[in-house]
Amino acid sequence: MAHADTMVHKANQIALFFATFPHDEAVEGVANHLRMFWAPRMRREIISYVENGGAGLHELADEAVRRLVPVPDAH
Amino acid sequence: MTLIHEPDLGTPARQSEVLVTVEVDGKMVMVPAGTSVMRAAALAGVGVPKLCATDNLEPFGSCRLCLVEIEGRRGTPASCTTPVEDHMRVTTQTPQLAGLRRGVMELYISDHPLDCLTCAANGDCELQDMAGAVGLREVRYGYEGANHLDALKDETNPYFTFDAAKCIVCSRCVRACEEVQGTFALTIAGRGFDSKVSAGGHSFVDSECVSCGACVQACPTATLTEKSIIDAGQPDHSVVTTCGYCGVGCSFKAEMKGNEVVRMMPFKDGKANHGHSCVKGRFAWGYATHRDRVLSPMIRSKITDPWREVSWDEAISYAASEFKRIQAKYGQDAVGGITSSRCTNEETFLVQKLVRAGFGNNNVDTCARVCHSPTGYGLKTTLGTSAGTQDFDSVEAADVIVVIGANPTDAHPVFASQMKRRLRAGAKLIVVDPRRIDLIKLPHVEADYHLPLRPSTNVAVINAMAHVVVTEDLVDHAYVQERCDPAAFARWAAFVAEERNSPEALEATTGVSAADLRGAARLYATGGNAAIYYGLGVTEHSQGSTMVMGIANLAMATGNIGRPGVGVNPLRGQNNVQGSCDMGSFPHEFSGYRHVSDEGVRTMFEDAWNVGLQSEPGLRIPNMFDAALDGTFKGLYIQGEDIVQSDPNTKHVTAGLGAMECIIVQDLFLTETASYAHVFLPGSSFLEKDGTFTNAERRISRVRKAVPPKAGLADWEITIALSKALGYDMAYSHPSEIMDEIARLTPTFAGVSYDRLEELGSIQWPCNEGAPNGTPIMHEAGFVRGQGLFMVTEYVPTEERTNDRFPLLLTTGRILSQYNVGAQTRRTANVVWHDEDRLEIHPWDAENRGINDGDLVTITSRIGETALRALISERMQPGVVYTTFHHPDSGANVVTTEFADWATDCPEYKVTAVQVNRTGQRSEWQLDYLALREATTQVAGSSTDTR
Q1: Considering CB atoms only, which of B332, B362, B620 is closest to A75?
Q2: Is A44 in the B-facing interface, judged by CB distances under 8 Å?
Q3: Where along chain B do the CATH 3.40.228.10 domains lie?
């Protein structure tokens, strides 16, 4: 993704939708959304972003990203 | 092929469980009670002469040609206005009746031009037919008396003429305008001999006429005649096909002479339109033969090079070699494709197959990304399937109609006519829209509630409506208990019942009167069958998917899903939005909305396609632009989609495209996107190919080839050629074989085939073993997902906020005469009604800025600026401005932002904070645009203007 702020913004939007759910359900909701709809490349980028501090990420998004497993692109 | 003549039974069908038996000229016929004698006779095979009667209009009884004798009755009643009775015995021909009819015809013909041989209706004139039918041999009154033969002709409408000299004042046109279209633009002015058809005292083009063509179709003489028929003469054969414009999916007869279309006539047996049409489908098909059509494949190395016309082989070979080169250099995932909702199911299926199987990745997306992707997400989550719940005819059983963020009289006009008919018959109407759309007040239609919300507050409004339903105990508890997930319902009910979601608490946020909102919610919940229809005013928001779920919540809570007259009904924008989504155009799912990670499904596709497939979602359209700017995405195959004009933040889109190394555009014209392309593959219009479209009611209808592809190949053939050149061979000899494959691989399409479509006319999916004839109404026995799932829909304000610098909210929409990016309709005479996009602004906002109607004004957002002429309008609420996006030089999307729906990335077109000021010149972007357009549309060695 070209800009980290765009990525963070998108992840936070997802987190805000799930924020009204019980905590575990919310975290899994965000994680599952990222697994289902974000391409592996985008997931790798946000995983890397969290590994580097994850500045600006909603806490649910942060926690959800930590549940993701990076997947390589096909070559 | 022959010209299809649909029978006209004279008066409309009646529904009744009581059947009566009638004898007509000795023939017995059984018909529903309430049927007219004329219709019963027609069903018995007996034609009664008629002029003022036609079976899509209520009987009128004015022409007196259809007189009959009925045993036991005095006189000669008009068969059109006389209902049948059990054991009635009717005689349609006696010497007395013949004399009466000849007398009537003599009167008509005494005041009618005797120019049959040179008349445009020669061969298709009911007056002429009736003269023959009644045996007219003389006109005893002569032709010298007072007459209307010098009446002036009105030729102002670009598509049809009104020749008053030929009018017999049968009122069919007036009644068609009222009953079929619901516009009431025509009337009979004057009395007695002075009676004449009038477009409200105006010329047709200046009147309220919307050019739907219903009057022209109804006219039994040459009074109202298509100019194309005047020019070309009567057609000699016809092909039934499906309109290529909006998501209503009207059936038409393409009426032809040789390989030339001379008229598009709405098909009475079309289940979506029942013989009605709008100005686009009926008349605006001239783009298919417009001189701007590109008919030769073209290639170029750089977008600043002139295009070079080449053979199909060279173009395909070049495109394939470029994609191979890119994948070899940047990786398998460095290319992708975009399918189009303007193309057929078969074509979109092939493009996504090419991407998944040929390119070897899931980087395929579709234009539904920017319109109804939240519908797919929201309805699948709550109900279990990504589609509307009803057929269009369901509206006829609705008691309360709710229209949210849709403008059906402009964007879905044929369905709007059906809706208006139901409203005139007494259904209640609630409109939720920032603008005063036409539907709010029309002849004999007036909304019971208009909730003029502030743009971006949809979810707050739907939560407030739900608050009223829950706290006033208007919930259909039996329905919810039987059909829905109880825990999810309890959670949702507790959430919406919170005081912060009350209409009063949200009034300041939404701008909607709490009293009106409560009234609307009560009406929806208690007014009988309540149906919600919504459009892009729901989906194109940062909470688009949330709002769709909110709508589904409300419908489930009040028991308004699962039978006729109710439901959740997305009004789809383009003709095949539903179909392109069904066909697996999204990067995360195969046809039938099955995720690519589903191993069983993926294995089935791998076996069928004989290739390994990726299990991870690919890139969405905005992700493709981002990846291009990152340098990881370099090639894009775009079939029939103009993303430069239609997608938000034009500068970002063009920057992304500019960073790619090979863009293949397959389209009819050199679109705005084609300015950034390296390969142009000339596509085929809907008239030039076989296939199917799926409309907003899940109705799969045949598209039939009326003329050969002008550039030589249908779009599906082009995709096959490209795939073969890339090394992945797809062997189909006809689109029916593609549909057969779709049916094999997609459970909801399992029972669909071209043979079944021929047999049934059209089919609404799901069509399979459980529903062999399709499914007009979904979720009848229970929700597709099992239990309906209530979702908590917290209102999250958009980040696009007004402030001192950008104090107005811009929202966008469509107009009746133009379609989407306008590539088609701008190349027709429809420009008479809309030759430029204008900025609608409330008089207060205009006055504060010293803006007069027609002034050129700048519209400035945080990301861009454009200039349009102002249209001062009280449709707008103060603080909100509006424009359309049909003309590329308007640059509407230069100012729209990249804020988007949280779940699907559907852009927030409906909310952009802007400032508006008077100006004396076009914006910098507009000036640059014109220069770039000039530079990127040159064709080497050609003087043809391909723009």
Answers
A1: B332
A2: no
A3: 373-570
